Amino acid sequence: MSIAQFPESELLQEAEIYARVIVAWHHEIGLQMAPGRMVNDGEPRQDSLDEYRRVVSHFLNSDLRSKEVQAELANVQLSGMFEWFYHEVIPESVWGRFADQSLRQPPQRLYEAARHIRQLHERLSAVTQAVEDPVPEPQENNRGNSVQFSSRRELEDLARAYYAPYIQEERVGIGGANFLLSSSLERSANRSPDTGEITLLTLDYLGFESVREFGKDHLLTRLRAGEIHIESVEGF
Q1: Closest listed residue to residue 80, CA positions, set 49, 120, 52
Q2: What is the pLDDT averaged over residues 55-64?
Q3: In what helix (H) or strand (E) does residue 6 lie, and over which residues does it extend?
């Protein structure tokens, strides 16, 4: 598994939505509001207006899929030229062009959207570190990897990254990450945490065995080959 496959693509795609919404707001609404907003003693601040227009144009012509560009935009919205419109509300019409219903509670104001970009990047950094750190070889005294998290979703991302070598079958419809995470949670004092610290336990410590190869008639071999498909899993 490469970080480009999961979860980087999902996190960056969500951050891209917030970035496009911010830029669209400034292009379609902010540029019209700016002459009345950027004034000094009743007179327009031409230097500020010119700089604002330049920055809007800069982001219109930037690749908003880039993490670096997203981070730059968040900084400009929170503490730069776009801060003139820090608390402005984002209309639903703007959200509707870029986000679907998967964003259950989209940010209402520009500064909130910028903060969401930063939060997504923080999650991405945490998961990237987990992916880059090799899974330790099982040892008698090796229980697993202790992780800190601020939400259930972040914990699930960290679990997928940690158990990546053992969950190839998720691509054919049967899971591993959620099962292994649940098994680790069962050994924890807090069985359904939304924030805190937990040890993601190794397969050896949990008493499981990872098998890579099976016979040609084995269920998993036929699943991998696409000969059979799983429509649903019941009983869990």
Answers
A1: 52
A2: 97
A3: none
On average, the pLDDT of the chain sits at 76
Q: In which band, very low, low, confident or very high, does the pLDDT at 140 lie, cut at 50, 70 and 90?
A: very low
pLDDT above 70 coverage of the chain, percent: 61
Only one residue has tokens 């693509």, namely 9
Exposure string for 74-105, b = 16+ CB within 10 A, e = fewer: bebbbeebbebbeebebeeebbeebeeeeeee
Is residue 113 within 8 A of residue 90, CB to CB? The reply is yes
What is the number of alpha carbons within 13 Å of residue 59 lying toward its C-beta?
A: 28
| pLDDT grade for 34, boundaries at 50, 70 and 90 | very high
Give me the sign of the Cα torsion angle 222, 227, 229, 234.
Answer: negative
Q: How far apart are CA 211 and CA 1, in angstroms?
A: 17
Residue that has been written with the tokens 């050896």 in this structure:
204
Closest residue by Cα to residue 16 from 58, 53, 59, 56: 59
Pick the range with the lowest mean pLDDT from 10-19, 20-29, 203-212: 203-212
User: How far is residue 83's CA from residue 77's CA, in Å, rounded to a whole number?
Assistant: 5
> Kindly report the CA angle at 140 between 3 and 175, in degrees rounded to 5?
40
